[in-house]
Design a protein that fits this description.
Distance between the termini: 13 Å
CATH class of the largest domain: Alpha Beta
Number of helices: 10
């Protein structure tokens, strides 16, 4: 039996380590191939919207993953998650937004959902998807979103502990009024490991998305 191969498509280097570590822990037998274009998130942050050019460049990156004979592809950047439905039809292998399974779990766990993002575009995208999932399930939800661009900047500058501290502070704040909190980006998952504690569940997408993609291709 051939080894399962999963392609990971990244728009930022910050997503590479969390998902690769999660694969080593959750599915060590899976062969992981990484495809990265950091200019995608850089240009998105500058432009503020997902343009046709960005979608075309992302599609090219996904195409490279497919040509590498992977069994499935995970898009690890939540800022482009809303574009996965239109991209899926272009490729033969299953393509999943890495955060979608986490969003489904958040809807299951509570009605007041806290969202923390460090990239401005990721917040509205996550909110929109949560509302769509809730509507499909006929569930009323309230979403409280916090954007911390200074945390992303800290991580870019190699100040990982400062990045985590920013996120810990927002978790503490949101936990006072939320049933569940989710971290919108893969790059944020590292902050949970050093979190002193939280009175509500804090969800991150790496482990959840791995289990989802493997179930889809099995």
């Amino acid at each position: 039996m051939s080894q399962t191969r999963i392609g990971l498509v990244h728009a930022t280097l910050n997503s590479v380590q969390p998902i690769n570590e999660a694969f080593r822990e959750v599915a060590p037998d899976v062969k992981v191939l990484n495809f990265l274009d950091e200019s995608l998130i850089e240009d998105l942050n500058q432009q503020g919207i997902v343009t046709t050019d960005l979608i075309n460049r992302l599609a090219d990156l996904i195409g490279k993953a497919e040509k590498s004979k992977v069994d499935g592809i995970l898009l690890t950047c939540s800022s482009f998650s809303a574009n996965v439905p239109e991209l899926k039809s272009l490729f033969r292998v299953p393509l999943l937004s890495a955060d979608y399974a986490m969003l489904e779990q958040a809807i299951e766990e509570g009605s007041r959902i806290g969202v923390i993002a460090t990239v401005p575009a990721a917040g509205p995208v996550t909110e929109k998807q949560l509302l769509e999932i809730a509507e499909k399930r006929d569930k009323q939800v309230t979403i409280l979103t916090e954007i911390i661009p200074e945390a992303f900047q800290a991580l870019q500058e190699g100040k990982a502990e400062l990045h985590d501290a920013f996120i810990h502070a927002r978790i503490t704040q949101l936990s006072k009024s939320c049933d569940v909190i989710l971290l919108a980006q893969f790059s944020m998952a590292r902050a949970v490991k050093s979190l002193p504690g939280s009175r509500v569940p804090v969800l991150t997408s790496p482990e959840i998305s791995i289990k989802k993609i493997l179930s889809v291709i099995s």
